[in-house]
Design goal:
alpha/beta; 2 domains; 7 helices; about 30% helix; about 25% strand; disordered C terminus
């Protein structure tokens, strides 16, 4: 498909604040944040509909959906993935599953001064983080440490210095961050942005990295705590096999 004929919807619902963006010809033509914290279920589709009407695009003209797949809010991710899968099934839109940390890292490209290195930090509970690190070049990022679960101190010890941090996990690991002596970017750089989901999605789409709708799943660090408690209460192992 000619990139000029694409009409792209980018969805970011991984964090507390959600947003959507529309793009065509590799450019963003419209974007909007949801109005409040964790309003994904109530506001996502009305916001998409409003943006489509502003552009004069029928809903069935969307050709691609770029969706932030996590890690992040269990509920938010499910909502974004459900919308993407529904559009794939109903109008044949192609899906690009965008790793949330890759989209978040692009926030640092707007920092002034521009950091040399940046890490995205998400809280993984149990005193762990889910994190990745990137070198920053003008207008682009180069991943140096793939996203993974880690002890905060071990992760920071592996990262190149000087290091800047962003991400909603920062508030949960202040002691380890202070000990590491890294720079924390302003909170304005922490939330996910649909515009950056769009940019990362374009890079993946150019590599033909599409995900069939039925195969699209959220990326979770761990299963919901309620499920783990239920299994523990009923003596069920994580693989759904009863203990001997």
């Amino acid at each position: 498909m000619d990139i000029r004929s694409r009409r792209i919807l980018a969805i970011e619902t991984s964090g507390r604040m959600g947003s959507v963006a529309l793009g065509a010809d590799k450019k963003i033509v419209g974007s909007s944040e949801l109005s409040g914290t964790m309003q994904h279920a109530a506001e996502l589709m009305p916001t998409v509909d409003r943006l489509l009407k502003k552009q004069g695009w029928p809903a069935n003209s969307i050709t691609d959906v770029f969706v932030s797949i996590g890690p992040g809010s269990f509920t938010g991710l499910r909502i974004g993935v459900t919308v993407a899968r529904t559009l794939a099934w109903s109008i044949g839109a192609r899906i690009v599953a965008v790793p949330t940390v890759d989209a978040l890292a692009r926030n640092a490209l707007e920092a002034n001064p521009l950091p040399e290195h940046v890490a995205v930090i998400l809280d993984a509970k149990r005193r762990q983080i889910y994190a990745a690190a990137f070198d920053i070049k003008p207008g682009r990022l180069i991943k140096t440490i793939d996203a993974h679960l880690s002890d905060p101190a071990d992760f920071f010890a592996r990262c190149p210095q000087p290091l800047a941090l962003l991400g909603e996990g920062i508030d949960y690991h202040g002691q380890a961050i202070d000990t590491a002596g890294v720079t924390v970017l302003d909170k304005n750089f922490w939330p996910g942005r649909a515009e950056n989901v769009f940019h990362v999605g374009l890079e993946l789409a150019d590599q033909e990295k599409f995900t069939p709708g039925p195969q699209l799943m959220p990326l979770y660090i761990r299963r919901p705590e309620a499920e783990e408690k239920w299994e523990k209460l009923h003596g069920i192992k994580p693989n759904n096999q009863s203990p001997k």
